Amino acid sequence: xxILFDERTQVFLDGKRIPLNQLxxxxxxxxxxxxxxxxxxxxxxxxxxxxxxxxxQGEVVSYDPMTGELDLVSGRGxxxxxxxxxxxxxxxxxxxxxxxSTQSGPSDLRQGTLVAIxxxxxxxxxxxxxxxxxxxxPGSTFVFSGSLIAVDVHGGSMTLLDPRDNRSFQIAFxxxxxxxxxxxxxxxxxRITAEYxxxxxxxxxxxxx
Length: 209
What we know:
With 209 residues, this protein is mainly beta. It has one helix spanning 97-100, and strands at 10-13, 16-18, 30-36, 39-47, 54-64, 69-74, 81-84, 90-93, 114-121, 127-136, 141-152, 157-162, 167-172, 189-196, 201-208.
């Protein structure tokens, strides 16, 4: 199949973007295409050089249920990686009971969903998801308890340390929606009800205890 490309085409090797002039003949590649008139044009080319099992944690950028192609980006930034979801992929949720009580599946792979993925080579030069663990989906509600490390009233954010696992969470808030936030301070123990909106946790209620 003949596919056209130019300087707009993005090329990724093992999830990292490489210059277009480093594109070389490869045994297998996954190519995202679009029609340009009567020609097929490459939007992006994804190549895996090392076919081995792996783990990846990040945020869903896009998911195509027709092809099973799932694009993710790490929370640390960087270029996206493409993984294939199949009928054999297992789904599960982890975390708080209010979140894990809901059954999960491919429909949860919406933009902004946080996931942890275990994948393996599919024999075609690509990674195939063996297990997808959902950490948070847009619109889901979580309750955090612990000590406030920092509170930025003007910036609308606070950082909470959960003593159960020593994990810290950055949580945004709207001062107009929670005026009582002005009465809390770093070092105070609080319980926060927050909603994950696809980009961040947003506080709906803050209660000192």
